[in-house]
Design brief:
It is a single chain. The protein has 188 residues and is α/β, with parallel strands linked by helices. The protein is 37% helix and 20% strand. The strands form three sheets. It has a four-stranded mixed β-sheet with strand order 3-2-1-8. Helix 3 packs across helix 4 and helix 4 packs across helix 5. It is globular and about 60 Å long. The protein starts with a strand and ends in a 25-residue tail after the last helix.
Length: 188
C-alpha cells in the first residue's frame, strides 16, 4: 500500500510492503520509492532478513508484481516472481478474489500498521534509511507489547520459536527482476 511522508522537507509517496508471519504475528514493513518488480523482490529479501529466514509459504494479494492474471489457486504467477520464489525456496499462495478470510491477517496488519506505524510517517526524515530504522525499532517494540493469539505469549517470544522453523536466508547477491529463456544447441 502507499503512504505519504516527508523526507528532507519534501513530501514523498512511498510504497510499503508489509510482512506478517502467520504463527507469531511478527510484523515488519519495508518502504520503497517505487512499486517495480525489482522493488518487490528487494522488499521480500529485506523482510526475510528481518525474519531471520524464509517461510515455506508466502501468501500475497493479487498485485501484478506477484500475479500475472487470475487469483487464488488458479492464479498465474508473474514469471519473474515465480522464479524469484523458487530461488528463495518458498511457495506462493495468492489470495482468492473477494475472500477477506484469505487475507485476514494481512488486513489486520494494515489496521495495526495505521495505528502503530502510522505516526512514524508523520515525521520529517533525513533519509529513507532513517525512516526504515525507525520502522524496525517500532516493529521490535510492538513485539513486546502485543500478544500472540496462538501461544498467549508476547509476539517476540512466539517469533523466537517460529524463527527456528524458517528456512535459511537465500544466498543471492542481489534480487533480479528480469528472467529470460534462451535456446541453445546441445553443445551449449
Amino acid at each position: 500500500f502507499d503512504v505519504r511522508t516527508r523526507i528532507r522537507g519534501q513530501e514523498t509517496e512511498l510504497q510499503v510492503l508489509m510482512g506478517t508471519l502467520s504463527h507469531s504475528r511478527a510484523r515488519f514493513c519495508w518502504p520503497s520509492r517505487e512499486a517495480t518488480q525489482l522493488a518487490w523482490h528487494t522488499g521480500h529479501l529485506a523482510l526475510f532478513e528481518r525474519y531471520g529466514g524464509v517461510p515455506l509459504w508466502v501468501r500475497i494479494d493479487n498485485l501484478k508484481t506477484g500475479v500475472a492474471r487470475g487469483a487464488g489457486p488458479s492464479a498465474v504467477l508473474n514469471h519473474s516472481y515465480e522464479v524469484f520464489a523458487r530461488a528463495c525456496g518458498f511457495e506462493v499462495d495468492p489470495c482468492r478474489a473477494r475472500k477477506g478470510s484469505d487475507k485476514g491477517k494481512a488486513e489486520r496488519s494494515v489496521r495495526t500498521f495505521r495505528q502503530c506505524f502510522g505516526p512514524v510517517f508523520r515525521q520529517d526524515w533525513l533519509s529513507l534509511e532513517a525512516l526504515l530504522a525507525a520502522l524496525d525499532a517500532r516493529a521490535w517494540a510492538l513485539m513486546d507489547r502485543l500478544k500472540c493469539p496462538v501461544t498467549g505469549t508476547s509476539v517476540r517470544e512466539a517469533f523466537k520459536a517460529e524463527q527456528l522453523l524458517l528456512q535459511p536466508l537465500p544466498t543471492m547477491a542481489e534480487p533480479f527482476d528480469v528472467v529470460v529463456s534462451r535456446k541453445v544447441s546441445r553443445d551449449c
